[in-house]
Request: fold
Amino acid sequence: MHAFMFWGTIGKTTLEVMIMPDKQEEINALISSLKAWDGSQVLISKEENGDRDQTIMKLDKISLADHGDTIDDYVSPLSLQLEGNGRAIMSDTEVPMPSSTYDIPIDELYDAHFDGMRLYMSTGRGSYTISRI
Reply:
């Protein structure tokens, strides 16, 4: 399978990243679905290695980040970036997000779909659900 170059604009950001051909439509659909929620509060639920994390944020900007080759598995080569102020929900409290960017690795995107209320994604790292609140 060969990757191709995706070039386009999301908001004011021009993108040029490598995307596998079978995932281009899924990634474009993800971005379109999320752009409809610009300015809204969203709940992001992530399940990874048996842990579940939740974050509430005001969605100000959606973009793709191409980090290129990375030296470790912590930073994904390609991620969907959600930007805005938010807070992480803990079992007994809420704390501000450490930064205004929430990255979702999509270089290993297995499945993504939108049911009108929630956006579901399954990646090599975990599963994510994003819903407007």
Notes: The chain is about 10% helix and 55% strand.
